[in-house]
Design a protein that fits this description.
about 200 residues; homotrimer; 9 helices; mainly alpha
Chain lengths: ~200, ~200, ~200
């Protein structure tokens, strides 16, 4: 499976956005929001790359990773400040929590696919590759929640690790039978994200 | 020292059990308990393997690691649900804290031995190898406590790092003089666990 | 840039001192203080070494790292117990917070320089090398704060990541033009530490 790097960057984008939204909710200043966004966006993939032996990790050799994470966090800040200027308080809060759920769900989907696919390309067997998919998918969020001193979502909600595991196992299971996996990759990512959203 | 992998798997088993018991105490759901058990069981060894350059980490190439951690966490859940069904509340609580202390002490002992031994096999000098033994022994528990937003035990109790250090130094000290270390390994693990238990 | 290892060891010393001071403030016992000091002193560099592929990490092959961290933490304990014996309570508190700010600022400066320099020597491009400088500089403090269940300073104060970034970018920017960087390294470290101190 020559997995497009696109999925990894999409995961970085949505994860960094979820980190920035958490930073806003916690009342962090601009630097804190950007740092939390970058740590959330790049953390899961960095742990995966270290564990599977991808040296150096992608975010250190491909400038698009840090750029994507920074742009996502900055974009969240800009949109939030705009919304805060025009909208009533209640509507903002609804939007904020919906936006958070959306980017968090998309993160699970994109990273489950890209994490499993990259682990397979580095020679891992299907089961540990799927485990790496789950770790990539939930890793950034665990780092995000630990940094703001909260118990990570993956420990508090059943339908968080389960969708990530389903998407990862799907990718790992069919990888040996086909090389034209892009449509399936989108399907696995979408399934993961949809399961997370409906179960929230 | 051709250290039996047995010690590493015994450490994984007891550490995963301690993680699952913590998850039960914190009121996590089943998935959260299993995730916390796996993270506690596999975390310390994963950090050790990354630091000493054992790529990929054992839990990604040897299926017995993930299986052992999962079975330990599942076993704890089954036993706990049984006990909750039959026993009075007070007795359960006594059993829960005793069980926790037991598996946590055994974890220290098994991982101090296996961590030091593996580091020596990877060419580290005795002192850093003993340091890796301590890190393996306390690492999973630190990850466990940080995930549930508590200050790790190793920072709060003196007789936690000290038994792990004694067991690790013992293994590192005698390693060069003998290759028939299994009895000594059991003695070092037992000493470490016993010191932790009597000092608790 | 053949960066002197001196900067790395100076960073370890000041970071371990900041960890020990945090341990004293949190009321940890002696073992807890030493463990927190060692984790703070060695943690940032260990993460850097793993990410840039410096195997094994410096603290496992060079005995001066663990020795420096231990001596710094022990020194802090001795000085504090002396001060507690002679001084009035208020003066101690002033001294404690000033000492903490000083060693934390020096840590930022030394590690921004040594982290960026080591990343460059391992072949990273200037931008990711500067990112590694920031990660080395703030990493130990993040580990320290997470271990005592607090939100890390880097998320709560704007003038924490920014001085580290300025020092790191300065080192990364001029590295290609000169090999006699020691005076500049001291200047970059001093600038970083000074910015952190005046902005605190």
């Amino acid at each position: 499976m020559h997995l497009p790097i696109l999925f990894d960057l999409l995961g970085v984008f949505s994860a960094a956005a979820s980190g920035a939204l958490t930073g806003i909710r916690k009342g962090l200043d601009l630097v804190g929001i950007l740092v939390l966004g970058a740590a959330t966006g790049l953390g899961g993939g960095a742990v995966r790359d270290v564990l599977i032996g991808a040296h150096p990790p992608a975010f250190l050799v491909d400038w698009r990773y840090l750029t994507t994470a920074t742009l996502a966090a900055l974009g969240v800040v800009v949109v939030e400040y705009r919304l805060a200027a025009v909208g009533p308080l209640l509507r903002e809060r609804v939007r904020l929590s919906t936006a958070y759920l959306t980017v968090d769900s998309l993160t699970l989907g994109f990273f489950a696919v890209s994490g499993t696919g990259k682990a397979l390309r580095y020679g891992l067997a299907p089961v540990p590759a799927a485990l790496m998919g789950v770790l990539t998918a939930v890793g950034g969020g665990v780092i995000r929640d630990m940094l703001v001193a909260e118990v990570p979502t993956v420990l508090r909600r059943e339908f968080y690790a389960i969708p990530a595991a389903l998407g990862s196992v799907l990718v790992a299971a069919v990888d040996r039978y086909t090389t034209a996996l892009t449509p399936l990759a989108f399907a696995a990512a979408g399934l993961t994200a949809a399961l997370r959203m409906v179960a929230a």
